[in-house]
Amino acid sequence: MGSLPPSLDLPSPPPKNPQHERVSETTLFNLFKAQQGHLNYFFQNLDLSQALSFTETLLNSRGTIFFSGVGKSGFVANKISQTLVSLGIRSAFLSPLDALHGDIGALSAADILVLFSKSGSTEELLRLIPCARAKGVYLISVTSVPKNALANACDMNVHLPLERELCPFDLAPVTSTAIQMIFGDTVAIALMGARNLTKDQYAANHPAGRIGKSLIFKVKDVMKKQDELPVCKEGDLIMEQLVELTRKGCGCLLVIDEEYHLLGTFTDGDLRRTLKASGEAIFKLTVGEMCNRKPRTIGPDAMAVEAMQKMESPPSAVQFLPVIDRQNTLIGIVTLHGLVSAGL
């Protein structure tokens, strides 16, 4: 075989790092320990009275809580804003650059503007302050350097104690942003508790995520029903029901009487065990003779996540649950595959 054309040449694997570029386990361990120490410094020196005033101010907000910051602090501010939004609290991120080019029009006198800055000397934020103040916004700075310009210009300041950055040059913002995130998200959970946010309310804000689905979806929302059900009668021969057993993709037969009451289940596992035990006699056996008369079942109004838990419970896991009403009438089937496909 000839060589590949130049355009199809496969790239060679990257060379191994030389010895001096490797990270030792000891080095990594020491870095984690050092960062732990820096975070402990923050926790031990945080002024809780400032944190409480900040939290209560946000709690009593009549408008939107805007967050702003530049660079890494901007990413943190944006993330904290998104956390509040997910809790049903009116919040948004305001880019200081975009604010000075029109976006400041979103601010009103009922709003709060929280400015995150390690140094408190961020030029873009300092330029934003007089414009925001002209809109009547309440200004809060969250900084780590004492007696900074941003704190002096705002209505409230929260000092986040910073021992130093983990960076060996004390420059890269890797500890300061960590404590900003810890502070903001902890306050968010405090607001969540103060507002008595329920699980259902939280789930309503996450309808497409696994969290929301586990708290919102009921069995009746994810079950197969009517023509999708692999049903048969107890007098049907097993071998005559093989097509039904496989065609509906549930891995089982649901055995019912004339009134659609559930009598039992017969699985593909039952088929293998029956074939092994009976051999050719299987041709004369009915489904009713070999079915499980006491299958696990569930009601249509149970939570879908409860169905999954029931499937996985001892003594052995199952792949499906027949869904019945209070009169033991079969109305559906929920499968593990269906739950997983639904995002649960």
Query: What's the CATH architecture of the largest domain?
Result: 3-Layer(aba) Sandwich
Largest sheet: 5 strands, parallel
Give the end-to-end Cα distance, rounded to a whole number of Å: 50 Å
Low-confidence stretches: none
What's the helical proportion of residues? 40-55%
CATH class of the largest domain: Alpha Beta
DSSP E strands, number: 10
Rg, rounded, reads 31 Å
> Count of DSSP helices?
15
Q: What structural class should be given to the helix and strand makeup?
A: alpha/beta
Strand content: 5-15%
Q: Globular, elongated, flat, extended or rod-shaped: what is the shape?
A: elongated
In CATH, the homologous superfamily of the largest domain goes by the name Glucose-6-phosphate isomerase like protein, domain 1
CATH topology of the largest domain: Rossmann fold
Strand order of the largest sheet: 2-1-3-4-5
Query: How many distinct folded domains?
Result: 2
Order of helices and strands: HHEHEHEHEHEHHHHEHEEHHHEEH
Mean pLDDT, all residues:
90
Pfam families: CBS (PF00571), SIS (PF01380)
InterPro entries: CBS_dom (IPR000644), CBS_dom_sf (IPR046342), KdsD/KpsF-type (IPR004800), SIS_dom (IPR001347), SIS_dom_sf (IPR046348), SIS_Kpsf (IPR035474)
Family: Belongs to the SIS family. GutQ/KpsF subfamily.
Protein name: Arabinose 5-phosphate isomerase
